Amino acid sequence: MMIQDIGLQDILQVIEPIWASKTVTAEKLRRKLNEILDYAMVKGHRTGPNPARWDGSLSLVMPSPSSVSCGENYPALQLIEIPRFWSALDRRRGMGAAALRF
User: Fold this and answer.
1) 18, 45, 53, 82: which could form a disulfide with 57 (CB 3.0–4.6 Å)?
2) What is the pLDDT of residues 17-34, one digit of tens each?
3) Is this model's pTM higher than 0.70 or not?
């Protein structure tokens, strides 16, 4: 597909399937598409509005990322639990455990 032919429906076709289930990934993808289309406009490869722009484009047809994101926060490790956490971490192998120990 030629970059000048990309429209709002094409952006929606890519983003909508993951908008509710993988909101953070979908928003990163939208931002990257926005950058690519902005670059194409600056370089003269396309004209007209950017269909991947949030304000004035996608915000009119999609729910905001904060309203669909079901992100879960995890409680912080309490200081009193650090010795127990550290010994459990020492029993684990792999890069993740090594990174946490670092």
Assistant:
1) 53
2) 999 889 999 999 999 999
3) no
